[in-house]
Write a structure and sequence with these properties.
This protein has a 4-stranded mixed beta sheet with strand order 4-1-7-8, with no helix packed on it. A hairpin with an 8-residue loop joins strand 5 and strand 6 (113-115). By secondary structure, it is an alpha+beta fold. The relative contact order is 0.30. The chain has helices at residues 2-5, 43-50, 54-67; strands spanning 18-23, 33-40, 72-79, 87-89, 99-104, 113-115, 121-126, 131-134. The protein has a single domain, classed as Immunoglobulin-like, CATH 2.60.40.
């Protein structure tokens, strides 16, 4: 029984501490692009969010947020091709999330979704038809 006293059944917190954007000159075929950082605090929502494509996410996010006011946090950005990208520090309550996803509203078909919670520092390279998640070199 003593060995179990130190164990916790709580899901682990995300490792992500920063997110940076690198926006290509022809990102989203040279059109502005909405990007959402979705931080999930409710274990039952992790599977639901991980199955969504960006098209479905952006179509239903308002309803998902209304149905789960404390279960997730959304940070929304709009990036312009060729413009400097944002630098986001994950602080405060955001660090208590158990999962972190990025969705980008590309005009081209595809899931345009990535799970990033296992990475401490993330560089999101936004290109013409999709994005890539890169771990910056130290």
């Amino acid at each position: 029984m003593m060995a179990l006293a130190g164990c916790s059944s709580a899901p682990p917190e995300i490792e992500t501490r920063e997110l940076n954007f690198e926006v290509g000159a022809k990102a989203n075929d040279d059109n502005a692009l909405a990007v959402d950082l979705v931080l999930v605090f409710d274990l039952t929502l992790v599977a639901q969010v991980s199955e969504l494509t960006s098209a479905v996410w952006f179509k239903t996010r308002d309803q998902v947020k209304l149905a789960n006011p404390t279960g997730l946090e959304v940070q929304s950005f709009e990036v312009i091709p060729g413009q400097p990208g944002a630098h986001i520090d994950i602080t405060g309550r955001s660090r208590d999330a158990i999962a972190a996803f990025v969705f980008a509203s590309y005009a081209s078909p595809g899931p345009h979704r990535a799970r990033i919670d296992g990475l401490r520092s993330v560089l999101l390279r936004l290109g013409g038809k999709d994005f890539a998640v890169v771990v910056p070199s130290s």
